[in-house]
């Protein structure tokens, strides 16, 4: 008897949407906003050799993020911090270099929710109310604790606040290296850098790389046809795989008889002489991605040779959430990523992909 | 969930190869390993030596890949038993035995497998993967072992080294799964060289080949190992209590001995 | 305006392929396989564990870098566990010890281009 699961692949989901970027009820920007933590953003523009200035400056404006080492988590619950940052803009924090299938981890969402994903022992020691992780199996080994820092009942004198502070400060002090970013519109105030000056804090800039791909085979797409038609256009899944091939520098011109690889660019396709690829790596917040997405839509404001372009965003494999507050886990890959195809007429396709321990994207 | 563990890194190797094994396990993402000292009663009279102190052996332990923590090193004793008299040692009050974090027994006969599962105070029962099963697994002892919180250990290195052993490994594992239903399985390496080690996700995938489900397979390199370690801790402390009660005259000596072993444990 | 119509498709566990990023580890000074030998080694591993049916499993070596012995493999989804276990249990290349390290797996090739566990952000 051979085990049945030999032929089964672990669960995964791919959601494909199409819509119009200028449609009043389009939710494409909301999907970006709801996905809080991203580690890499890439965009690919066919028929483009040189990046327009406006896109260059958008990228340059991606801003800094911060790495604070050994930050006790109770500092994120302190009212000075909540008043200075959480309530005055969008504050993002994510534990760095912790593995969610093995360790404790923590994240602060821009809506002021602090999420702790902890193992059973830590949960019992902390004594804070939480719920079992959805992906922990029959014997619960992991718990999720959510603390709403902006809740009216969480003022400095409240019982709730004091209990959380005591649990995190004295009962079971937890500390992590945190990636931090803060986005606020215009409001003056202190900066993360000065606020955490007593801690070990480092300001970091996203790493940006450009490259020009020559003679790239690109699939022919019809914006109103996600599934494609033979001889006419490629399907959204074909495009998704092709883009993966391009970003991983996979050779596209093989034959079905090739020994090494039989992968080839989906049909029909056209060869573009030049395509521009830009990759930004760091702790990237949704606000910046929305700005970039908007500028990429504006790219088609002037006549262009390209029929479409793509914007790919990779989430953190070990983030405790994927979209909104949906619990995210790591089974084999922890993938949570999305990709836009923006067409010349501002129709868009959106792919949202998650692995085994994840909810269906919104 | 818990960090990944390899509960069987043979201690026999010299210090330098042990160091390179430890570095390789940390690099592959294991956060806990157990150094295994094997005693085979077939080979003349064997003394149970004190476990090596990992902190003495390696003043600075390697950092687990992708984290900022150092790898945790435990000590383990494995007794290969082919005659019921061999088990006496486990029932005796040898102080050295209690110093090990994990105690495993490798029963060579059905009777000894039964004894190991039902009465012996051990944490792990080793499953033979290098030859055809010398006996059938039966439900009562296996269920009893599961109830007692004892885990069954499968090794994967023999399956890498030799195709015949690979067949035995898979078929013995599947036979066991039919009885234990995927519960209480630990998969370890017993690797003697870094190139025989495999990463935790790779080993979990092997678990599928052995008939485990996705969740059980990952547990076999993480949560089940943690449970084995906890079982070992409980056994150690429980043993101390019994000892104190039985020989009241030696209370003082014992009281100093117990904190010492606990101290060694926390340091490791 | 027909183009503005909204459409949503949810594909559950429907990926035709799975992808593995792997690295072959060899002892120092051993002969390094070229791309064709590398593919041959993968087929050998499949045959050793899963026999002729295993060897017939369609596997593509999408990329291979001889310098780092790293590759991206593609396999039909139903063959993922078979390919992965075959690579794990392979112990020898040209009579010398070797080890395949699977660095990442995903049903999405795109996921392999941004693995936060490997990115260095500081």
Automatic annotation (TrEMBL), chain A:
GO annotations of cellular component type: multimeric ribonuclease P complex; ribonuclease MRP complex
GO biological process, one term: endonucleolytic cleavage in ITS1 to separate SSU-rRNA from 5.8S rRNA and LSU-rRNA from tricistronic rRNA transcript (SSU-rRNA, 5.8S rRNA, LSU-rRNA)
Protein name according to UniProt: Ribonuclease P/MRP subunit p40
GO molecular function term, any single one: ribonuclease P activity
Pfam family, one: Ribonuc_P_40
InterPro entries from the UniProt entry: RNase_P_Rpp40 (IPR013893)
UniProtKB/TrEMBL annotation, chain B:
Protein's GO biological process: rRNA processing; translation; tRNA processing
PROSITE patterns for the chain: RIBOSOMAL_S2_1 (PS00962)
GO molecular function, one term: RNA binding
Principal location listed in the UniProt entry: nucleus
Cellular-component GO terms for this entry: nucleolar ribonuclease P complex; ribosome
InterPro entries: Pol/histidinol_Pase-like, Ribosomal_uS2_CS, RNase_P_p30
Keywords: Acetylation, Nucleus, Phosphoprotein, rRNA processing, tRNA processing
Glycoprotein in keyword set: no
Subcellular location: Nucleus, Nucleolus
Phosphoprotein listed as a keyword: yes
Entry's family note: Belongs to the eukaryotic/archaeal RNase P protein component 3 family.
Complex formation: Component of nuclear RNase P and RNase MRP ribonucleoproteins. RNase P consists of a catalytic RNA moiety and about 10 protein subunits; POP1, POP4, POP5, POP7, RPP14, RPP21, RPP25, RPP30, RPP38 and RPP40. Within the RNase P complex, POP1, POP7 and RPP25 form the 'finger' subcomplex, POP5, RPP14, RPP40 and homodimeric RPP30 form the 'palm' subcomplex, and RPP21, POP4 and RPP38 form the 'wrist' subcomplex. All subunits of the RNase P complex interact with the catalytic RNA. Several subunits of RNase P are also part of the RNase MRP complex.
Function per UniProt: Component of ribonuclease P, a ribonucleoprotein complex that generates mature tRNA molecules by cleaving their 5'-ends. Also a component of the MRP ribonuclease complex, which cleaves pre-rRNA sequences.
Protein name: Ribonuclease P protein subunit p30
Automatic annotation (TrEMBL), chain C:
GO biological process entries: tRNA 5'-leader removal
Record-stated family: Belongs to the eukaryotic/archaeal RNase P protein component 2 family.
Entry keywords, A to Z: tRNA processing
Domain of life: Eukaryota
PANTHER family assigned: RIBONUCLEASE P PROTEIN SUBUNIT P14 (PTHR15441:SF1)
GO CC entries: multimeric ribonuclease P complex; nucleolus
Keyword tRNA processing among record annotations: yes
Pfam families tied to this protein: RNase_P_Rpp14
Organism encoding this protein: Junco hyemalis
GO molecular function: ribonuclease P RNA binding
Protein name (Swiss-Prot/TrEMBL): Ribonuclease P/MRP subunit p14
């Amino acid at each position: 008897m051979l085990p049945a699961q030999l032929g089964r692949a672990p669960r995964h989901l791919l959601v494909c949407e199409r819509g119009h970027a200028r449609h009043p009820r389009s939710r494409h920007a909301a999907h970006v906003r709801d996905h809080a933590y991203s580690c890499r953003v890439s965009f690919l523009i066919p028929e483009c050799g040189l990046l327009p200035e406006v896109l260059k400056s958008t990228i340059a404006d991606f801003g800094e993020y911060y790495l604070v080492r050994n930050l006790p988590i109770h500092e994120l619950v302190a009212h000075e911090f909540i008043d200075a940052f959480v309530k005055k803009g969008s504050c993002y924090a994510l534990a760095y270099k912790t593995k969610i299938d093995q360790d404790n981890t923590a994240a602060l969402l821009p809506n002021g929710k602090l999420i702790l994903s902890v193992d059973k022992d830590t949960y019992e020691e902390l004594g804070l109310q939480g719920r079992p992780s959805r992906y922990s199996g029959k014997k619960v080994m992991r718990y999720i604790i959510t603390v709403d820092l902006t809740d009216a009942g969480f003022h400095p004198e409240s019982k709730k606040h004091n209990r959380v502070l005591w649990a995190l400060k004295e009962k079971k002090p937890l500390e992590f290296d945190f990636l931090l970013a803060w986005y606020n519109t215009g409001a003056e105030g202190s900066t993360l850098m000065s606020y955490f000056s007593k801690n070990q804090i480092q300001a970091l800039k996203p790493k940006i790389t450009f490259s020009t791909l020559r003679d790239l085979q690109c699939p022919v797409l019809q914006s109103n046809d996600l599934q494609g038609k033979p001889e006419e256009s490629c399907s959204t899944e074909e495009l998704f795989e092709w883009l993966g091939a391009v970003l991983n520098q996979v050779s596209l011109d093989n034959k079905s008889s090739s020994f090494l690889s039989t992968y080839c660019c989906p049909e029909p396709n056209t060869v573009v002489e030049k395509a521009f690829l830009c990759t930004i790596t760091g702790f990237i917040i949704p606000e910046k991605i929305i700005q970039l997405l908007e500028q990429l839509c504006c790219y088609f404001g002037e006549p262009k040779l390209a029929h479409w372009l793509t914007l790919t965003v990779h989430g953190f494999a070990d983030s405790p959430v994927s979209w909104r507050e949906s619990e995210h886990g790591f089974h084999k890959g922890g993938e949570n990523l999305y990709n836009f195809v923006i067409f010349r007429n501002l129709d868009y396709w959106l792919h949202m992909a998650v692995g085994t321990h994840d909810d269906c994207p919104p | 969930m818990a960090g990944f563990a390899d509960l069987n890194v043979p201690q026999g190797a010299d210090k330098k190869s042990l160091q390179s094994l430890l570095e390789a396990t940390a690099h592959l993402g294991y956060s806990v390993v157990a150094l295994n000292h094997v005693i085979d009663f077939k080979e003349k009279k064997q003394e149970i030596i004190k476990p090596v102190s990992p902190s003495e052996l390696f003043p600075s332990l390697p950092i687990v890949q992708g984290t900022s923590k150092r790898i945790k090193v435990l000590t383990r004793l494995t007794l290969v038993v082919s005659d019921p008299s061999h088990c006496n040692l486990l029932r005796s009050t040898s102080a050295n035995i209690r110093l090990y974090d994990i105690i495993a027994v490798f029963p060579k006969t059905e009777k000894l497998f039964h004894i190991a599962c039902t009465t012996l105070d051990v944490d792990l029962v080793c499953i033979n993967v290098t030859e055809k099963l010398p006996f059938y697994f039966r439900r009562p002892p296996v269920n009893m072992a599961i109830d007692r919180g004892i885990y069954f250990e499968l090794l994967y290195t023999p399956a890498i080294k030799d195709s015949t052993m690979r067949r035995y490994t898979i078929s013995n594992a599947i036979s066991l799964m039919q009885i234990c239903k995927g519960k209480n399985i630990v998969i370890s390496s017993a690797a003697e060289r870094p190139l025989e080690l495999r990463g935790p996700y790779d080993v979990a995938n092997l678990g599928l080949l052995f008939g485990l489900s996705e969740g059980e397979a990952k547990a076999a390199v993480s949560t089940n190992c943690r449970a084995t370690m906890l079982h070992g801790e409980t056994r150690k402390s429980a043993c101390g209590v019994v000892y104190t009660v039985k020989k009241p005259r030696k209370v003082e000596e014992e009281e100093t001995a117990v904190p010492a072993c606990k101290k060694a444990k926390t340091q490791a | 305006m027909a183009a503005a119509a909204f459409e949503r498709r949810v594909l559950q566990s429907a990926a035709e392929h799975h992808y593995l990023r792997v690295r072959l580890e060899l002892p120092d000074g051993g002969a390094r396989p070229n791309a064709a030998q590398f593919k041959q080694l993968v087929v050998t591993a499949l045959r050793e564990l899963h026999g002729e049916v295993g060897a017939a499993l369609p596997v593509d070596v999408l990329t291979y870098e001889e310098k780092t012995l790293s590759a991206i493999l593609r396999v039909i989804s139903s063959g993922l566990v078979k390919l992965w276990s075959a690579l794990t249990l392979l112990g020898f290349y040209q009579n010398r010890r070797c080890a395949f390290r699977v660095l990442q797996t995903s049903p999405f090739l795109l996921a392999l281009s941004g693995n936060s566990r490997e990115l260095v952000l500081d």
